[in-house]
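In response to reviewer comment 3 from the previous cycle, which asked for concrete evidence that the modeling workflow produces usable outputs, we include below a single protein chain processed end to end. The sequence was submitted unchanged, and the resulting structure tokens are shown without manual editing.
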Amino acid sequence: MGWDSKVAKTVREFNKAMEKYLKLHNFNVIDVYSVTSNKRGFSNKKYHIDGHHLGPKVVPLIELQIN
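The workflow returned the following structure tokens.
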């Protein structure tokens, strides 16, 4: 497994564990990972303004989760 695959797997496992504990304690999470990642677990390049930072196009997707 390459380094990129290990990183993507680590992010998926962390998000899964975080979701479990958030539900356990009645917290909610705004999930930007699933809407901004491709099938390999990396940016789908639709919502990032550069290699790391989300841009304003993601705001309507966040608002859907809040409402």
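The radius of gyration is 13 Å. We consider this sufficient to address the reviewer's concern, and the full set will be provided in the supplementary archive.
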